[in-house]
Amino acid sequence: MSDEININQEGSEENQQDTITRVGGMYKDWFLDYASYVILERAVPAIEDGFKPVQRRIMHSMKDLDDGRYNKVANIVGHTMQYHPHGDASIADAMVQIGQKDLLIDTQGNWGNILTGDSAAASRYIEARLSKFATEVIFSPKITEWQLSYDGRKKEPINLPVKFPLLLAQGAEGIAVGLSTKILPHNFIELIEASVKHLKGKRFTLYPDFPTAGVMDVSNYNDGNRGGKIRIRAKISQLDKNTLVISEIPFGTNTSSLIDSILKANDKGKIKVKRIEDNTAAEVEILVHLPPNISPDKTIDALYAFTACETSISPLACVIEDNKPLFIGVSEILRRSTDNTVDLLKKELEIELQELEENWHFASLERIFIENRIYREIEEEETWEGVIKAIDEGLKPHITHLKRAVTEEDIVRLTEIRIKRISKFDIDKAQQKIEALEGEIEKVKHNLANLIDFAIAYFEELKKTYGKGKERKTEIRVFDDIEAQKVVIRNSKLYVNRSEGFIGTSLKKDEYVCDCSDIDDIIVFTANGKMMVTKVDAKTFVGKDIIHVAVFKKKDKRTIYNMIYQDGKGGATYIKRFYVSSVTRDREYDLTTGKAGSSVLYFTANPNGEAETITVMLRQKGSIKKLKWDIDFADILIKGRNSKGNIVTKYAVKRIELKEKGVSTLKPRKIWFDDTVKRLNVDGRGELLGAFKGEDRLLVIHSDGLIKTITPELTTHFDDNMIILEKWNPEKPISAIYYEGEKERYYVKRFLVENENKEDKFISDHPDTRLEFVSTHWKPVAEVDFVKPRGKEVKPAMEIVLEDFISVKGIKALGNQLTADKIKSVKELDPIPYEEEEEVHAEDMEVVDEERIGQDDEKDGEGQITMELD
Q1: Over the range 112-148, which residues count as b (16 or more CB within 10 Å of their CB) and which as e?
Q2: Chain centre distance of CA 485
Q3: Quick one: which of 25, 61, 322, 864 could link to 80 by a disulfide (CB 3.0–4.6 Å)?
Q4: What pLDDT digit, counting tens, does each position of 608-657 carry?
């Protein structure tokens, strides 16, 4: 498109000329003007005070109207329109946003609810006034720089003299032309503490804190700079086996949007929910009711994986400095804000010092003027000039101690003193006033000389005065990554047509395999020794003669495949055991050596590394002496899928039969508990709980007396009130000392877990019942301290061995009363050493490193297996 346009034609037909105007440059200027206006005047806050223009004008208008009483918001909005040229709607919205942050504005009426997403009432129905914090921190007219408003009728502040890192406390979000800003809110108390640390020359770290609370992972916060990211989760706990409670929500969501996201995930089959009950008022309470036989732990993970219960926010700290956008980290914003506060405090002190010195100067002049009766010397003067001169002459002998020269202005003020005041003048009171001013001057001078200490004291006073109730709400924790495939609800059914080689969810007339989800991968093995992993779909061709199909688990080294195959047509037979931990989707893998005509003679998939015993039978041919023998897969090392395997025989195999099912040959799996993320893992993070076999369980005890045993699944969630987590020994008794609220006595009990599949409580539900001591040691010891009776000596502390005090009884037994005396405290001592009998197990097989095909296998005699050694 040409940047030259024929604008008009002027003049008569005889003198008609085309006027050509280049508008490319005009468009460029207009766009830059518009972009600059949006950036500077609407979307991005200033670093000096942390306000966008509309916010600054609202606060200035509220100061104009401030008389200590509430004003209708509609009135404040109308008053703000004198300074802000964008109409009432934008002003009202901005004011509601400030009011909901509960820092600068004291609100009255329905200002909306950030938890539920409910909007505020109309401006004419709600009221506001400046908070005490805003009055103290934001305004100081004597050090404020002013400019004319947009119509030139009023004066408005260029920047408000904010003496606090307000931008970081409130946060800011805005979209301009070509850039945006997203500064997250931070904790009030932590900001003050960080400012103090900066003033003391110490290092500090800042992390966001949200009014909606929740749990937050700040591992990648990156100081709020571009490229950073935080993850926020709702706080979800288990009320009972069929009910979850959401008590805190992520920042940027509300209960309505959160529930909508859960319902959508339920409709798509990602999770299964029976119903949702929203009881949110002042606090969030969303009850998620689950259908029977649905795992609460997996549902919690699924809520994080598929709904708004987990969100991520990418901060981008952009501010205006010297009328230019500046990208800057939150730590630097705090440093600059703190330094700016110090400068503002210095200016206020300097102005205060100047005013005090002026007051001292005039008080001293007034005393001289009255005490020395200089006012009498003007009685005979007939002109104003004579009066001024007479007073000036009368003052000269007495002004040597003044700190500045006497001006005509000072003399004029002396002439304005009333006769009544002169007649009642008290020299002692005047001197006391002068001395008081001198004391205040010295104090201000001291503060100026020790400005940093003064600023630190200022911040500490803010914390003391306004910090109550502003403790951190958002919990900081490191999150574990949730694999969607492990927690998604299996909402589809997988079918297979083995002979034709098709798998899919639409083959309902064919063989059913298992339940699956639409995000699962499917692993398939065929009779010619090929393997493939593919995404689940309605119908997919994977290869004819399918021998095994299942949902594929990534990084799974516990599922072991046992296989015997013939290497090419008429070739030797090999045996191998392997795992499949990672593959490329839709790529065909050959599990044989790749010779034409290779075929699988025997195949099993074993989820826990089971090793069966098989019988190999050969065809009668020539002089073969041994036609039948057994092979135990437990004797075969587990390798990667590319291993060639061990030779079974070079002769033709008639058939292979299963002789005996086997047990797991894998070593017990070591499991750790990471207290930071409250999750189990097999990666060595946290405390080692032990090595677990398939039947082993974990013992979990809570502070409210709840006890249960669970299988050690890595998706299990653990509550904050958990006090014991360990590998469960069914023969090991649990010992406890507790206060029974109904009987108002302390009891001792020892018991065993009676039902491993049932949650139980070993103390009562009485509100005053409390658990004082619980131990899983064989011979625990406790020390009991007693309350001193009135008028008597205190009973010495009692040490008891719980095993000697009471025998093992049922879990519901009350136990034996500990003592009739009043108890002060119960504490655990070191247990009596006890040696447990060690169980002796056969040496377990280990997974060895993958060995590539191509190595020579040795054989020792025909029809026998030669083991490969490490």
Answers
A1: bbbbbeeebeebeebbbbbbebbbbbbbbeeebeeee
A2: 23
A3: 61
A4: 888 999 999 998 877 777 889 999 999 999 988 889 999 999 989 999 99
Query: Rounded distance, CA 671 to CA 713, Å?
Result: 10
Average pLDDT, the chain: 87
Which of 44, 48, 38 lies closest to 327 in space, CA to CA? 44
C-alpha–C-alpha distance, residues 582 and 816, integer Å: 57
pLDDT at 865 over 50: no
- pLDDT for 377: 82
Amino acid at 767: P
* Rounded CA separation 776/828 (Å): 12
Tokens of 693: 């076999």
Tokens of 446: 């001291």
Residue 150 falls in the annotated catalytic set: no
Q: What is the pLDDT of residue 561?
A: 95
Tokens of 378: 């003007």
- The band of 18, judged by pLDDT with boundaries at 50, 70 and 90, is low
Tokens of residue 826, six digits: 């119960």
Residues 832, 575: Cα–Cα separation, whole Å: 53
- Residue ranges and CATH numbers for the domains of the chain are 27-199 (3.90.199.10), 229-313 (3.30.1360.40), 490-660 (no CATH), 675-829 (no CATH)
Q: Among the options 27, 37, 125, 150, which is catalytic?
A: 125
Computed on alpha carbons and rounded to an integer, the radius of gyration of the chain in Å comes to 42
| 706 phi and psi angles, rounded to 5 deg | -75, 135
The confidence score (pLDDT) of residue 23 equals: 67
Whether pTM > 0.70 for this model: the answer is yes
Element (H, E) at 461: helix 451-466
pLDDT at 24: 65
